[in-house]
Each structure stands twice: as C-alpha cells, then as structure tokens.
Amino acid sequence: MDGAGPRPPWLKVRFPASPRFGELLALLRDSELHTVCEEARCPNIGECWGRGTATFMILGDTCTRSCGFCAVKTGRPGTLDTDEPRRVALAIQRMGLRHAVITSVNRDELPDGGARMFAETIRWGRRLSPGTTFEVLIPDFKGDEDALAAVMAARPEILNHNTETVPRLYRQVRPQAVYERSLRVLRRAKELDPGALTKSGLMVGLGETREELLAVFRDLAAAGVDILTVGQYLRPTPAHLPVARYWEPPEFEELREAALAMGFRHVEAGPLVRSSYHAEEQAVAARSDAAGAGMIPLTVRGADPAGG
C-alpha cells in the first residue's frame, strides 16, 4: 500500500463497458499498434476509448529510460518498424479522428531519438486524414535541436513535452532527464514554429510542495507554454515510486487558478487529468478568442512547406 493510504473516492473509476472500446481494441490489435493508454495503465482508458479516442505510442513498446513513475516496459528496444507511421495513419483514418495524439517511448540509442518517425507519422496522417489535427508528446531527444527541428518541420498543431515533476525530485522520478533541458525543448519548439501550441504536464503526489509547483508553472509560462495539465500520480505497480499524498479536488482548482493567472491559455487540473485527457477540448480552448467571444475550431495547419 502507498504511504498515502488507500485511494480516496474521487480516484475510483468505473470501467465502462462500451462497444466502441471493443472496436478500438480490435483495430489496434489488427494493426499491431501500441497505445500509451494501455502501456502506462491510464485510469481514463475506459472513458477515452469509449469515445473513440486513444493516444498512439510509436517506436515500439520498450523504453530506454527507467522513470520511477512509469509502467512502460524498460529494456533494449527491438528493430525500428519503419512501416509504423503508415499503420498509425490508417488507424486514425479508420477511427475518423478529428484530433490525433502521438507519443513514444524514449529511444536514446537512435541517432535522432526517433524524431524522423514522429515527422513521418504526421505526414502520413495528413495524407490520409487531411482534416485531422495532430498533437505530439515527445521525449527530450537528449537536447538534440536538429531532432526537435525535424518534428517541428512536420508542423504539428500541438507540441507537448512533459516536465512531469519539480526539479528537486528529478533524481528519483526522471533519473535520465534534466529539468533545464526540458524547458529548453519547450522554449525552442516555440521559437522554431511560433504558430504551434506548446504544452506540458506535471504529476502531483510525489512529495512536491505547492510552492515548488508554482515555481515550475512560472518557468513554463516564461518558456511560452500555452497549455498546462496537472494530475494526480497513481502508483502503477509496487515496484514504482509510492504516492506521498493524494491532493484533493479543491487543491487542483487552486493550482488551476494560479496557473491561469500566470498567462497560460488553458489549464486542465484535476485528480484524473493526464497529458492526453480531453486533448482536443484543451486545444480548442487554447485557441479560443482572447476576448472571450467563444470557442473557435483548432485550425488544421497542413503539410510543411518542404513538401513532406
């Protein structure tokens, strides 16, 4: 059991039995694709899959890093599947998605960290589903700016890179990551493509303080991040980091209000919030009229000028 005790009632989720869930599961199995929803044991999988949305995980199912919070398998990855971008795009087309989210494991052994595969997935997606908007949740590519530039050249509507936690806890939570490097990724992404939205997310419940969280919020705002997500950490297995405490719903609302006051365009904060939870709604809200006249659609940006 976690040091924080049993899960409170607001974290207990019913798994809805939806026909759409079964259809999506069969599609993914037939296509030999992975989702972070399954690999990371996301608590919202029933709701999201029931609505026909999923976050595709490219570059295989084995990560070269060993983060203390993550349930994705760690080890030596297999051979790169160069047909994966096409199969992801076909699945997006068959699902009729208006907004597609693509993430990956870390592939630190690859020269570009897998950046080319992100770009190819977006380009295949645009060919088969020209009306779909694309969000990518990327690793830090070990700070390789050329790798980041390759992703941004494919013109994703949203570039997401999670900071995950506060700097003091990086050694335990993200031992192979660097806080300042993550900030640079987000800042540089905005410089490379000012028209793209940038996004980052954090977990709470690992031992951080409110003051530390607010300091990270300020750093992200200074880096030009548009969308912020904040959710409760849930221990996926006994081998992972324990939950230090469960933050209560009113505390999430306080964090949301504090972040909005710092200038973020949209903040999603709540116990069950994850990076890709309500991703399309987050994007639309971030694109809303600054004067508050109402929501506008997230604009499809089209292929990159280089003709990818």
UniProtKB/TrEMBL annotation:
Cross-referenced InterPro entries: Aldolase_TIM, Elp3/MiaA/NifB-like_rSAM, LIAS_N, Lipoyl_synth, rSAM, rSAM_sf
Root EC class: transferase
Catalytic activity line of the entry: [[Fe-S] cluster scaffold protein carrying a second [4Fe-4S](2+) cluster] + N(6)-octanoyl-L-lysyl-[protein] + 2 oxidized [2Fe-2S]-[ferredoxin] + 2 S-adenosyl-L-methionine + 4 H(+) = [[Fe-S] cluster scaffold protein] + N(6)-[(R)-dihydrolipoyl]-L-lysyl-[protein] + 4 Fe(3+) + 2 hydrogen sulfide + 2 5'-deoxyadenosine + 2 L-methionine + 2 reduced [2Fe-2S]-[ferredoxin]
Species name: Tepidiforma flava
Record: residues binding [4Fe-4S] cluster 2: C63, C67, C70
HAMAP family assigned to the protein according to its UniProt record, in alphabetical order: Lipoyl_synth
Protein name, per record: Lipoyl synthase
Pfam family name, one: LIAS_N
Subcellular location, principal: cytoplasm
Catalytic activity, EC: 2.8.1.8
Subcellular location(s) of the protein: Cytoplasm
UniProt similarity note: Belongs to the radical SAM superfamily. Lipoyl synthase family.
Domain Radical SAM core residues, every copy: 49-265
Binding site for [4Fe-4S] cluster 1: C37, C42, C48, S276
UniProt entry keywords in alphabetical sequence: 4Fe-4S, Cytoplasm, Iron, Iron-sulfur, Metal-binding, S-adenosyl-L-methionine, Transferase
GO MF entry, a single one: lipoate synthase activity
Keyword Transferase part of the UniProt annotation: yes
Cofactor: binding details: Binds 2 [4Fe-4S] clusters per subunit. One cluster is coordinated with 3 cysteines and an exchangeable S-adenosyl-L-methionine.
Cofactor names: [4Fe-4S] cluster
UniProt pathway: Protein modification; protein lipoylation via endogenous pathway; protein N(6)-(lipoyl)lysine from octanoyl-[acyl-carrier-protein]: step 2/2
Family matches, as SUPFAM superfamilies: Radical SAM enzymes
